Each structure stands twice: as C-alpha cells, then as structure tokens.
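Data availability excerpt. The first of two example chains:
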Amino acid sequence: MMSSMLSTTSAMSMSTTSVVSTFASVGVAEVSVIGVICLILLLAMSEILSASKFWNSRLATMLNAAILPMLVAFAGIVVFRVMAVLR
C-alpha cells in the first residue's frame, strides 16, 4: 500500500515537472495565444449554437463552464501584458 502511494506520488511529480518544462520551452506567449484562440472558438460556438435547434440549458451550462475559466485566463493575460508595457 505504501509503495503504491510512493510510486503514484513519484509519477505525479514527474508529470508536473514535464508540464512545467513544456510550458517553459514553448513559452508563455504561445500558450496565451492558444488560450485566446480557444476562447474565441468557444464564444463563436456558443453564439452559433444558441440560434440552432440543438440549444438547450444543458449545452448552455457546458459551454459556460468552459468559457468562464477562459475569460479569467484572458483577463490575466491582458493584465500581465499591460503591466509589461507600463514597465
């Protein structure tokens, strides 16, 4: 039991390290561009689907659950970009 917990913790640590190194090698600029593109696509899907016959409250909830965190990330990107320009 203890060895499986240690191996799980080790695997999680290794995966966290690989994610951090991936973001470090790719760069924050590229990741922020991908985030903004995803936000634009989600907003477009929401607008298009709201006019279709497939729109229902479950779909609206699902899209809102994906859009809201992307909006927070977008606000963070804007704040950091503005701060970088003002320095």
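And the second chain:
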Amino acid sequence: MWKAHTKDVNCVRVDRTLGRFLSGGDDCTVAVARLPLFSPLATLRCEVGVLSVASDHSRLVAGCEDNRLRLWDFQQAAEDCTFQDTQAWRALTGMAEASRSQLAHQQALGR
C-alpha cells in the first residue's frame, strides 16, 4: 500500500482522463500518483498545509493554508510561482472569461 502523507489528508483529486491521483495534506505536501496502480510520480513540497489541488495536462495548482495558490510545472516538478490573489490566477488560466460568461448568464436570468 502506498502511503503518500505523514499527517492528515485534506483533499483528493482523481483525474481518470490523465490517469492521475492527487492529494494534499497537513504534512505540507502534494502527492501525485499514476492510476490505476497508484504508482508514485512526485511529491511536491509547500511551506504550509495543502487544502485543495487541481491540475491539467501540464500544471498543478495547490491551495494552501496561507491563502496562497502554488503552481507547478509537471514537466519540471518545480514550483513556478505563488499567487496570493485568486484574480491573478484566474486571469492566468483563462478562468476569468468563463467567470464573466457565467455572471452574464446569471444576470440575464435575474439572479
């Protein structure tokens, strides 16, 4: 059995499309494993506990206890940058446009 964390696990993400399992915990790490056998790919370290994780084909983002987002490049397994402002993160990833579309739709519905 694969033991990915030494303290409590706070979040888990399974991406069947990319064949990855991600988890973040109080031990200040993000564990990345390959599915379906949970073979370890990487352990990424943070300065504080990890509360949430998400990824796409080339990047991983972790939401941490210090209210910052940390971004890694999967190819290099190195931390690219740290974001304190979630608007900066959304703008970087293109989520800002999706959020505006959703807001416009809600306004059209009178919500």
